[in-house]
Amino acid sequence: MPEKLLISIITVNLNDVEGLKRTMTSVFEQTWQEFEYIVIDGGSTDGSKEYIEQHSDRIDFWVSEKDSGIYNAMNKGIKAATGKYLLFLNSGDHLFEDTILEQNNQFLMTYDLVYFNLNVVGPENTFVKYYPDKLCFSYFIKDTLPHPATFIKVTLFEKIGFYDEDLKIVSDWKFFIESICKFNASYNRIDEILATFYLDGLSSYPENSEIIHEEKMKVLKSNFNVFQKDNNRLNELESLISNLRKSKKIKLLVKLGLLNKF
Question: 7-223 adopts what CATH topology?
């Protein structure tokens, strides 16, 4: 029996043929090719299917059929994958450099999650987003990990379950917060840029901010209600301390030596 491949790269697409070309090209041009490539298309009608067919000899598994949403498509990719680690590089996003997998595949050994920095391209500027070395509940209240720059050990999906298809936008955030704060997943941060992400997806649209908030609150109340109460209290205390530091009376007491600086 052949040895199991280390990585499965999964690309999800729906009617974004130009973005798909950018993504697939970055995968095909990698100098290290010991990975499996999977493309899940949602029944596109813009030429995406034809483009996939033209390059099917370089794709290990692909399908073009209607689905119920992005997380349904991502779950199809998980079910088709055979690699030890999964990387979701969805249509439009791309690997940062042609040598990036060659340079970093050695970090994929034992950790459940291995995450990198992310190059972010917005409508007005480009910047690198850095992620913390230590992850905690309060971090996930405000942020998440980047799915285009995070390798997920497949056994973590076997332990936690697939992406929640009842959620439209934050199911990957739910998976990450549950992995760290509920299932104590092991993780490692690598201080390198792995991928480029374009701010044109569902979670980037301002009009979706209310949906994102509602979905996150639903997850927090059902799974982390006690944590959330503690976090709210911590935020109140931090706000109180911040206001005290700005107080002229407090500053005077510190200056006179009657109160230690805090």
Answer: Spore Coat Polysaccharide Biosynthesis Protein SpsA; Chain A (3.90.550)
Domain coordinates in residue numbering, the chain: 7-223, 225-262
Amino acid sitting at position 5: L
Structural contact between residues 8 and 81, judged by C-beta atoms closer than 8 angstroms: yes
For the record, the structure tokens of 116 come out as 């990198």
Confidence of residue 223 (pLDDT cuts 50, 70, 90): confident
DSSP H or E run through 142: helix 137-142
Residue 238 clears pLDDT 60, i.e. is over it: no
Dist CA 141 CA 114 (whole Å):
20
pLDDT of residue 1: 40
> Where does residue 236 rank: exposed (0-12), middle (13-18), buried (19+ CB within 10 A)?
exposed
pTM here? 0.85
* 31 C-beta neighbours (distance < 10 Å), count: 11
DSSP result, 152-213: EEHHHHHHH-S--TT-SS-HHHHHHHHHHHTS---EEEEEEEEEEEES-SGGG-GGGHHHHH
Residue 196: predicted pLDDT: 98
Query: What does the DSSP 8-state code read for residue 4?
Result: P
Backbone angles phi, psi at 123, to 5 degrees: -65, -25
Closest by Cα among 66, 118, 123 to 89: 118
Handedness of CA 162, 219, 168, 235 (dihedral sign): negative
